[in-house]
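Dear colleagues,

As part of the handover before I leave the project, I'm documenting each prediction I ran so the next person doesn't have to rerun anything. This entry is a single chain, and its sequence is reproduced below.
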Amino acid sequence: MLKNLRAMLHRQQFETLVQSASEYFESSRDVQVLPLMALACVHQGQSARAQELLDQIAPRRDELNLDTLAELAAVMLLLGQTEPGRALLITVVQQMPQQAPQQAFAHAQLAWLAQSEGRMDEALIGFRLAFAQMPGMAWLWFNLIRLLLVQGHGGEAQAVLDHAMAQFQAYEGQLDEVTAQQQKAGLHGLQLEICRVTGEFLPEQEYLGRHAAPVPASTWIH
């Protein structure tokens, strides 16, 4: 069950995740699910509810495994608890097996923190590492591609976007309509950013072949 819930998190299905995680916790009382629920709450703007969940976790924190601790640390970062969140992430990365999916998640969170603190080279290393280990995290695509563009790696940014579009098209049918449209629009927006930065505009048929959706004619060349 936790694997399915984590897939919802990585696909940014936050509303569905809150509902499914709540139902699972009610039936199982499994504390491992609470950080996932808190993460989804933060992303929905429910910071007070996320903090309530952290308070609920606190007396049972020793029960959390490394995977769940990585998610707990991510909640702490998003709630502005930067130093304890950073320390916990570093501990998790050091103790987890190499190439573990949740280690990739932890690397991505540390990269996001580095980016927010202006350490762009470190952030790019972390995002690249996380993408290599776990290329299915939707939010990671956006951060990595934009940072690649800022640092002049347009070709790599396009390669990441092509992978992201293939991943999205594979799971699009599992999303609700609003989430699917938001992610599709975001990915198309990234393509426009790449075209603008690199000056390389795609032929109409190539763009439609990649993205299977109409875009403004100014995006095309003939």
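The two ends are 49 Å apart (CA to CA). DSSP finds twelve helices and no strands in the chain.

All the best with the project,
I.
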